[in-house]
Design goal:
Elements (H helix, E strand, L loop, with lengths): L5 E7 L8 E10 L2 E12 L3 E2 L4 E2 L4 H27 L5 H9 L8 H15 L6 H8 L3 H9 L5 H6 L13 H6 L1
Antiparallel strand pairs: 1-2, 2-3, 4-5
Helix pairs in contact: 1-2
């Protein structure tokens, strides 16, 4: 097995300077392939130490930004390790996408919540209460209404919920509703 090179470094994009602040960018390099991303941080250009790849000084702002950069570097390292364990061929782009949440197993919050509700519903009567499930299901009345409209709820459940808050139902396709 060939040994791979893996490096994460941070730099500032001086061309995008606005009122003395420059954006902090990140670069992942693996076996010569590079991928860049924005760290969503800005720093005063006079504070950036290019050799150390971090903010110079001991001010509260410098400590805060350096801590965030260290967290980013750690998370990228974890994603790299996870991909190494799973795949045989790794690129900087794959690691960047995994770090940014653009990978294969990226799920939206509402999709995750729907999966949680489905599992919760299976446990109702065993170690979960129906009233708790009803409260979770009605957390968003408009969304609950869409689920009832598309037949995603049990008809007995819909009959119990005559008093749900009505909402205007836009004309979305079923796939668009699942993406919501």
């Amino acid at each position: 097995m060939q040994r791979s090179t893996f490096k994460v470094l941070f730099y500032v994009k001086r061309q995008s300077e606005k009122s003395g602040q420059v954006p902090v960018m990140g670069r992942i390099t693996i076996n010569g392939t590079m991928s860049q991303f924005s760290c969503k941080l800005t720093v005063r250009s006079t504070l950036w130490d290019a050799k150390a790849n971090k903010v110079a000084g001991k001010s509260l702002e410098a400590q805060r930004i350096n801590e965030k950069l260290e967290n980013i570097k750690t998370n990228i390292g974890k994603q790299y390790q996870r991909l190494c364990d799973r795949d045989s061929y790794i690129t900087a782009e794959k690691v960047r996408n995994a770090f940014l949440g653009l990978g294969d197993n990226c799920r939206l919050l509402l999709q995750t919540f729907d999966e949680y509700l489905a599992k919760f519903q299976k446990r109702v009567g065993k170690d979960r209460s129906i009233s708790t499930f009803n409260n979770y299901s009605k957390a968003d009345p408009c969304r609950y209404s869409h689920r009832r409209q598309w037949g995603l709820l049990d008809h007995r459940q819909a009959a119990k919920d005559r008093y749900t808050v009505p909402c205007q139902t836009p004309s979305y396709s079923r796939n668009a509703l699942q993406a919501l």
